[in-house]
Amino acid sequence: MVLPSPTLTISCAGDAKLAATIREFLVAEGIATAGREGDDEISVAVEPEGGREDILAALSKYASARLEGYSLIEFGDDVVIVGMKAEPEELGLHVCGQCGFQTASADAMAEHSKLHGGYLFMPPFL
Ligand SMILES: [Zn+2]
Predict the structure, then answer these.
(1) Separation of 92 CA from ligand 1 center, angstroms?
(2) Cα–ligand 1 centroid distance for 111 (angstroms)
(3) For the segment 20-77, what is each residue's pLDDT rounded down to a tens digit?
(4) What are the start-end ranges of the H helices in the chain?
(5) Closest by alpha carbon to 89, among 110, 73, 107, 103?
(6) Position 126 pLDDT exceeds 50
(7) In this structure, are residues 96 and 102 in contact, taking their beta carbons and an 8 Å threshold?
(8) β-pair partners for 8
(9) pLDDT band at 118 (very low <50, low <70, confident <90, very high)
(10) Which of 40, 75, 69, 44 has its CA nearest to residue 58?
(11) How many angstroms separate the alpha carbon of residue 75 from the centre of ligand 1?
(12) Would you call 62 helix, strand, or coil by DSSP?
């Protein structure tokens, strides 16, 4: 019995242009075969022995050298997301220091803060 070789999906979260750039690199490295244009995901066949680690190492090296501000986020064993690292504050969001509530509006945050009143944590009924 021959098991299908496992695949690693590299997702660029909707960014097909980024995916094309990464695919080009992976093809040049002999890791991936050319995929469909316009896809924001790249499927790579993984060698059973250490293949996943090799791919992640190559990808991570490429990302740190060429993709400033991007990071690799692993989801389980077979999905890696290449995405922008972003703090809520960098996106212009106000973040409640007590409960983590986020809003783009300073006024809404001021209103929100009042809800906490003297409570350390937001009561469940609010
Ligand atoms: Zn809060």
Answers:
(1) 17
(2) 10
(3) 999 999 999 988 877 777 789 999 988 878 888 899 999 999 998 988 888 888 888 8
(4) 16-28, 51-66, 106-116
(5) 103
(6) no
(7) yes
(8) 44
(9) low
(10) 44
(11) 29
(12) helix
